[in-house]
Amino acid sequence: MEEKRPILSKLSPFSLRKLSIRQQLPLLICLLLTVLMAVFGTVSYMAVRRAALGIGQQRLVTLTQQLSTMFQQSARKLAGATQALANQPAVVHYLEAPDTTTASGAQEVLRKSLADPQTVRTELLDLQGRQLLSAGNMKVRPDVNKEILNGKPDSNFVGGFYPAGDSIYAPLIATVTRDKKPLGYLIRWQPLRTKPKDVEQFTQLIGAGAVLYFGNSDGSFWTNLLKPVAAPPLAAEGLRKTVNYKRPNGEVIAFSMPIGSSKWIVRVELSQGLLLETATRFLYWMIGLGVLLIITGSFIAWLISRNFTRPLNHLMRATAAIAAGDYSSSVTIHRKDEIGNLADSFNSMTTRVRQAQENLESKVRSRTEELEAVNRELEAFSYSVSHDLRAPLRAVSGYAMMLKEDYEDRFDDEAKRITDNILSNVKMMGRLIDDLIAFSRLGKREVKRNVIDMKALAEGCVAELSATWPEKEFDIAIGSLPDCRGDSDLLKQVWLNLIGNAMKYSSKKTDARIFIGASKEAEGTVYHVRDNGAGFDMKYADKLFKVFQRLHSQDEFEGTGVGLALVKRILDKHRGTIRAESSPGQGAVFYFELPNDKQELNFNLYAQSSRSIAGRGQYP
Amino acid sequence: MHNQVEVLLVEDNIHDAEMTTRALKKVNLANNLVHVKDGEEALDFIFARGKFKDRGTDNPPKVILLDIKMPKVDGIEVLRQIKSKEVSKSIPVVIMTSSKEEQDVISSYSLGVNSYVVKPVDFDGFARAVSQLGMYWLLTNQPPMPASM
C-alpha cells in the first residue's frame, strides 16, 4: 500500500503544485472558463434549438393551414363555375324528364362547356352515379364516377386526382337540383396545368426549403402538381399531426391537412437543418466567443500572476543570496499591497541579519584578539619558564658537581650519596621542564598534513631509542604499517613515546619482545605497539593519558608522567584516538587510530578554525 | 699582538659564567677570557667605548660567547650590532642560551650567528658543551686575519 502512494500522487491531477504560480493561475482560469463556456454554451444551444424547432413547427402548421384555405377557396370557385353549368334549365329538364328532346338540349350544354379550354370532358350522371350523357374525348374508367361520388352525394366539390396518360386530371362535381331536390350530378374534368415556375414561386413563398405534396384523401395518389410522386413517408400517420423523418438531404418535419371542398390533402415538408440554421449559427458564435474569452481570460490571468510572481521572484533571489551568505542583498519593490509589505519586512530583516552578522564578526574579531593576547602572554610565560627555571637549576647542578669534583676525597659515603641525589633530582627536574614546555607548546602548534611513511618513521624511532639502551637486547618486530596523513614531527613523538614506553617497561624482562603493527578499519587505520613488559591494572586506565599521572613509582621506572598526555594531545590534534589494554605483568598494547582521508574535510575545517583563533604557531 | 683576548663571555648570570669559565679552564682555554655582565658592556668592549675605550678595535676576541636574556641590551641586539659593522662582523659569535624558542633561533641565524647552543641543565652536559665549543672555535677553527695585519 505504501509503495503505491507515490505513484498515485504522481497521477493525481492536483500535482499542479509542481508548476510555478505563474503557470498555475492562467491554467486554472483557462480550465474554469473552458468548463463554464462548455456548460453555458451547451445549455443555451439546447434552448435555442428547442425554440427554433418550436417556431418552425408552428410555422409549418400555419403555412399548411394557409395553403389548405387557399386551395379550398379555388376549389370552391371551380365548383361554383361547375354549379352554374349544372343549373342550366336544359340540364335540369333532361334529368326531370329524360327523353331524346331534353337529351339533345342537355347534350348541347355539355358540348358548349367544352368551349372552355380548361375543360376536357363533361358528363352528366344520375343519382346512382350512372353516366347518362357525356362530351369530350377524354377516356375514363367506367367505374370511376362511382368512386368520385362515394361519400359526397349532395354538395359541390373537387374530386381526387386522376392520372391518365401523361397528365393528371381533376373532376369538378356539381349537384343538379330542382327545388333543393337532387336530380343528378354534373362532372367537369380539368387537367392540372401547373408550370414548374408556379410551383417554384409557391415554394419560395413558403421558404425554408419547403416541399409541397398534394394527394387524394384516401392516400391513393400523390403529386407535386407537376407529376405523380411516391407517397411521402408516414403518410398513413394521419392528418393534422407533425411528423419527423429522414430525407437524403437530412432530417425534415412534415404536416398534412385536408383541403376543404375537395378530396385533396396538402402536405408541407420543411428541412430541420434550415429551421435550425439560426441555432447553428448561434452555436458557432458561442464557440468563437468562448475561445476568444478563454484566450483573453488566460492572458489576463497570466498578466496578473506575472504581476504577483515577479516581485516574489525578486524576493526569492534575494533570499537565495542570503542563504548563500551574501547579506548585502535587498529587494526594491515599490508597492503598497501585501507583497510590498513583505518586501519591506524582508529588507528590514536583511538589515537586522546583516547587523547581527557584523556584530558577530566584530565579536569574533575581538575575542580572537583577546585570545591572541592571552596566547602571547602564555608564550612569554613558557619562554620565561624555559629560560629562568633552567638557570638556577643549572647552578644547583653545577655547584653540586663542583663540590663533588673538588672535595670528593674529603666526602664520606653519606655525603657522596646526598650529592648524587642532588644531581639526579636536578636531571629529573630538567627533564620535567622540557616535557612540560613541549606539552604546552603543542596547543599552538600548526598541524601539517603530509603523507607519511609510517613504517620508515617507526623504524627510525626504534633505531634512535635502541641507542639509549646500549646494554639491553630487545626483540622488536615491525609489521606492515600503512601510510597516513599527518604531521610527521608530531607522529614521531607518538612513536618515540609509545615505543620508548614499551622498551622501558619491558626492560626488566630477560626476553623483552615488542611488536609494532597496524590494521585497516572502516573509519581509519589502527596502529599498535605491543610489549610483554610490566603492564598495568586496567582499573587505572583512565589515568594513563593525564598529565603527571603515573602508574609506576619512580624507583621502578623513571618518568615524568607527561609522555602519554603528550601523545593523547597529538592524536586529538589529528582527530585520532588512543586506548590501551593490559593487565599487571602481562604486558600492554597501545592502540591509536588515525582517521581516513575522507574525513579530512572536517579535520581541515577544524584545523583552520583552531589556527585562526590560536594565531601563528611558532614551535619548530 | 701578545695577550690577545681569546674568549669574550657575555653572561649576566654569574653562576653560569663561573661554570663556563671552569669548563674552559679544564681544557686550558680560559687564559685570555674576559667576562662582561650585559649587552652594553659587551658592545663597549667590542667597539672600544666607555671603560674599554683605551683598548682599541684592532684586537678582536677569537670568539664571543653570548647569552640572549640579559639586562639593558639583550643578546640579539648585541649580535645585530656586531654583524652589521665592518670592524666586528667577522668575529665568530656563539649564542649560548637556555632558550629553545624558535623565534630566537631564527632571528639569530638571520643575523649571521656562527653557532647556536642550548645550555643543558645538568652540569655534565653543560661542561661538555662548553669545552667542545672552546676547543672548536679556539683551536680547530681558522680565524680571519686581523684587519690591521
Automatic annotation (TrEMBL), chain B:
PTM-bearing positions, type 4-aspartylphosphate: 67
UniProt-listed CDD domains? REC_Rcp-like (cd17557)
Q: Name one GO biological process term.
A: phosphorelay signal transduction system
- Classify the source by domain of life: Bacteria
Q: Does the keyword Phosphoprotein apply?
A: yes
Looking at the record, the residues that make up the Response regulatory domain are 6-134
Q: Which UniProt keywords apply?
A: Phosphoprotein
Q: Does the keyword Phosphoprotein apply?
A: yes
For this protein, the record's Gene3D superfamilies field holds: 3.40.50.2300
In terms of PANTHER family, this protein maps to: RESPONSE REGULATOR RCP1-RELATED, TWO-COMPONENT SYSTEM REGULATORY PROTEIN
Name this protein carries in UniProt: Response regulator
